[in-house]
Structure formats: structure tokens, C-alpha cells
Amino acid sequence: MVELGVNIDHVATVREARKTNEPDPVWAAALAELGGADGITIHLREDRRHIQDRDLEILKNTVTVKLNLEMACEEEVVRIACRTKPQQVSLVPEKREEITTEGGLNILLQRERIGEVIKRLQDVGVNVSMFLDPDLAQIQAAAELGANAVELHTGQYALAEPGPKQGLELATLRAAAAEIRQLGMTLHAGHGLTYRNVKPVAAIEDMHELNIGHSIIARSIMIGLERAVREMKQLIN
Ligand code: PXP
Fold first, then answer.
1. Would the CB of 92 count as within 6 Å of ligand 1?
2. Does residue 101 carry a pLDDT above 90?
3. Ligand 1 center to residue 113 CA distance, Å?
4. 112, 121, 170, 178 - which has most CB atoms within 10 Å?
């Protein structure tokens, strides 16, 4: 079974648009669970533009499926993660000016720091996933640093025109997935996945977890979150 991690950051984005207390991502997490989510994913950004520290604290105590915290290797957030101990952390790059995470983490550029963060998280019992482009050198570096999982960045696949271009991106994802499997890490994928493009990615051999946010939250505005999650869960399996 492919697990579905539902990213609920956009619910917090709507709340922060008015700096008020609704809609509450904590409610969204409960509804996503009712729809069959296997995990709840949130990104605690350094600039706190959507998810707040309070959300992480409450979700840690209320989510009954896997809580996956996306974060950069920024020291304050690393300390918060080590104290809160979500089941899983996904290390991502972060730029203040970006609208959403733009590319995978470049492990080769900051190997020592990333290795230290992985170890500190694993020492307190947190599984560590690395958000990487489908690049074999990066994947090998993740294995050398002892990462538990790699989340393949599916953004290029999602942006590619359906047809041969998308086929090429899918082949790149498949090759990267084979390397992740070969190196003994768990395979995750995410970014830009939608109800239209998700099936071939979900069908990659040994796919364990997909993290999907925008498309599910967008549909939930029209049909409700529980149903939107249930429909995605059916599609990926
Ligand atoms: N995975 C990671 C690491 C991400 O940063 C994001 C976006 O926050 C997602 C998955 C979900 O992407 P989308 O919102 O495009 O489904």
C-alpha cells in the first residue's frame, strides 16, 4: 500500500492571511485522518509564514497517524524538532523569497551540517527523510549520511508536458527510485502531484509514501477535505 501524507500548510496560509484563528490546521488534520490519510505533513518555516509553533505542539499531541515535519537545517527549528520529536522529519532547502520549496536539498554543499542534523534527530528517535532531486550523487550522499528515506522531488515531472517529456521525467524518477532501493533507504515522493498526474508516480516499484498538499487542499475547498483525501487515497492504490 502506498501511504498518503497530506500536507496541510495551505490551511494555515489562509488563517495567516487574516492573522486570525481560523481555519485551524488542527481541524484539517482530523478531517484528513477521517478521509484515510496515513500521515499529516507540515512545514515549520523559519519565517513562520503558515504553520506556527503552536500548530506543531498541538498536532504532535493529537495526530494519531504519522506526523511528518518538513524543515530546513536552521538551528532554532532543529532544536524545536529535537524537543517535539515528530515521527518523521523531512529535511528541505528553504529560501525566504520562494513561494514553495523550489528544489531538492543540496547535500554535497553542506554535507557536514546535514550529517550532524540527521544524527541529532535520529538520536532522539526521529526518522529522517531527505527531499532530493532525482540525482544519483545526492542520493548516494544521503545514504552515506545515514538517512532513513529519500523523498524524490517530483516537481520537474509535474511541470513537464504530458507525453514524451513527462515520460522522460518519469524514467529519471524510476532510475533514482531504483538507486534509493538499492542503497536500502525508504522511497517517498512529492511536490506538484495532482489527481491527474499522480498514478504513474504511485506505481513506481516500492513507493512507500507520497506527500501531497496543494492539489488536495484546492479540491477540498469545493468538495470538502475528507472526501478530497479519500479520492486521492483511492487513486494512489
Ligand atoms: N514534499 C515537500 C518536501 C514539500 O516541500 C511540499 C510542499 O510543501 C510537498 C511535498 C507538497 O507539494 P504540493 O503542495 O505541491 O503537493
1. yes
2. no
3. 23
4. 121
